[in-house]
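testing teh design pipeline on a random one, pls ignore if ur not involved
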């Protein structure tokens, strides 16, 4: 995953489109790998280059709905200042998962993020 951090915006977009075109089991494996290797700081920026429908498909992944995964993503987004990248993805998550994101953000004292999440429904 370290390779991803060295790609420019155009290449990240192209790679994101290639990745998201893969079957769901491959995408699930990518999410699992990001979880296990704590590589969300590398993977999340790639979502900024995804088209709206591609981002929605990514947000719909069952593996992305797990509370442990969400906690890790929120922690990484906070530490690496990736909330501007994460918010568009969060807005596409199911309501129950957005609630988990808001709870995690609240626990970290991120009231401005919680307010933004509440505004977006």
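output:
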């Amino acid at each position: 995953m370290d390779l991803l951090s060295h790609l420019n915006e155009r290449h990240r977009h192209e790679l994101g489109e290639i990745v998201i075109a893969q079957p769901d089991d491959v995408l699930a494996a990518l999410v699992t790998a990001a979880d296990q290797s704590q590589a969300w700081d590398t993977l999340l920026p790639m979502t900024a280059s995804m088209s709206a429908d591609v981002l929605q498909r990514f947000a719909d992944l069952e593996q992305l709905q797990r509370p442990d995964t969400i906690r890790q993503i929120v922690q990484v987004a906070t530490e690496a200042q990736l909330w501007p990248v994460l918010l568009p993805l969060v807005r596409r998550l199911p309501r129950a998962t957005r609630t988990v994101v808001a709870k995690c953000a609240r626990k970290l004292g991120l009231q401005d993020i919680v307010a933004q999440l509440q505004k977006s429904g």
